Amino acid sequence: MTEARAVALRLPSLDRVLSHVAFDTLKTQHGHAAVVEALRGVFDALRPAMLDKTLSAELIEPTALAQRVQAALKQRSQSRLRCVINLTGTVLHTNLGRALLPPSVVQAVAQAAACPVNLEYDLDEGGRGDRDDLIASLICQLTGAEAATVVNNNAAAVLLALSTLAGVDAPQGKVGGQVIVSRGELVEIGGAFRIPDIMRRAGCELLEVGTTNRTHARDYSAALGDRTAALLKVHTSNYAIEGFSASATEAEVARIAHAHGVPMMVDLGSGTLVDMRRWGLPAEPTVRQSIEAGADVVTFSGDKLLGGPQAGLIVGKRQWIERIQRNPLKRALRVGKLTLAALEATLRLYLHPERLTQELTTLALFTRSPSEMAEQAARLQGAWAAALGSRWSVRAQAMHSQIGSGALPVESLPSFGLVIEPSADASPAPSVQALAAALRQWPTPVIGRIRHGALWLDLRCLRAQDEATLLAQLPALAAGAA
Ligand SMILES: *Cc1c(COP(=O)(O)O)cnc(C)c1O
Q: What is the pLDDT at residue 406?
């Protein structure tokens, strides 16, 4: 053994290896340059072994090198954006792409992607149309608003609306005007969306009123002046102020705004088109409620509770929506045909609310019965325990999932899942971090969460097809991945 080590092997010459017949097909398939680059990568990975004098002859045989190059090229050609299995317990997980589109919606997107569509073409007149016209009436029907438009996401919707109501594109006399907001509503949403920053970018001035925990209608009235351009209410999506707190209602704020001759805007964040309580879910304000309270402009996301594609919906009084549509920023923030196809197909599902829990994927996930998830956990517990071996303990356990994306921050949904932790007698204890990392390296990565020194896998989002994929991957664990 020591003798084999005594011969310090060196990496062969790149050109010599490349000219070996084992590389012929690779070069035809992937091109010379890609193969050279991949081989360089393989050499880089072997260099430490060469310096340690632990390089073995088998490792640097041309056929072995060709295999490694092939594996590297295959990995590179794989899409970087991959399907993962979300067992985090957060249904609308922003980092995992939020809402899952229902199959009927996916079909609508695929169809629109593959053919020319009447995106901005009026089929009756045979001339130019407006992309908003395709879905504006549907949105109005579902929200009770007079008019509607759609942009890239809700952050864009807020920026565009503020810019139109009170910023650089505001009506004469209101440019750079003040927008009055409660201190308790100056939210920061994950990913650097802060109301004060957006306000500055939109070209308007923020005027805070009230205190963090209490803002009254009279605070808004007292702040009104010549420079007031709009009053804004923001849904405090990702936190709740509890205890000694007070806020003015949307109706009160709208009344104050209108008495002063300025518009009132609501950033609902998630918003929903239906009262979620009908399915035993916690209450979340509906868009219709804000419209009925007198809001002139309401903005909300397409991929939060709505369960559709990433989009920002802006609804409200015709006068303001038309101004928003004429704002040059609208062109920069507009959506494409794929988004519109997905949004239209999603909104159509809302025309039959009685079928929504079956047809809207996210709602189906929110309303999964705990007993069904408990059965699923019992089914999976044995398979995981067998794959992981005696160093781990796996138990099925009740847990709580989150809706996510800022909707209903304090409420949670009773759920069921697996808790995986090192066995009490395992010495040394296996690493939970390493186990979580191994699951992330699977062909279809599984994402859980680490809590109290254990890996928690919440099964709420494990659909039947995902369960099969997961079970097929489990043997990799037994093969020593963790
Ligand atoms: C989520 C949210 C936003 C941002 O919406 P995106 O669709 O993610 O751009 C803005 N405001 C509030 C209150 C939110 O909850």
A: 67
The SS3 call for residue 185 is helix
- Ligand 1 centroid–CA 153 distance in Å is 8
The answer to whether residues 258 and 220 touch, using CB atoms and an 8 Å cutoff, is: no
How close is the Cα of 159 to the center of ligand 1, in Å?
A: 11
Look-up of token digits 């509503």: 185
> In this structure, which residue's CA is closest to atom 1 in ligand 1?
269
DSSP one-letter string for 17-40: HHTSGGGHHHHHHH-HHHHHHHHH
**Could you read off the pLDDT of 273-317 as tens digits, one per residue?**
999 999 999 888 999 999 999 999 999 999 999 999 999 999 999
Q: Are β-strands 85-86 and 446-447 bridged in parallel, bridged antiparallel, or unpaired?
A: parallel
Q: Where are the alpha helices (DSSP H) in 81-223?
A: 103-114, 133-143, 154-165, 195-202, 217-223
What are the pocket residues of ligand 1 if the criterion is a CB atom closer than 6 Å to any ligand atom?
153-155, 158, 187, 189, 193, 234-235, 237, 267, 269-270, 301, 312, 405-406
On whether the pTM is more than 0.90, the answer is: no
b or e along 342-360 (b: 16 or more beta carbons within 10 Å of the residue's beta carbon)?
bbbbbbbbbeebeebeebb
What is the sign of the dihedral through the CA atoms of 290, 271, 224 and 202? negative
How many residues comprise the chain?
A: 482
Structure tokens at 332: 């920069």
Strands 205-209 and 178-182: parallel
Q: What is the DSSP letter of 441?
A: T
234 CA: nearest ligand 1 atom: 13
Centre of ligand 1 to C-alpha 406, Å, is: 8
198 alpha carbon – ligand 1 mean position (Å): 12
Rounded to an integer, what distance in angstroms lies between the CA atom of residue 167 and that of residue 329? 12
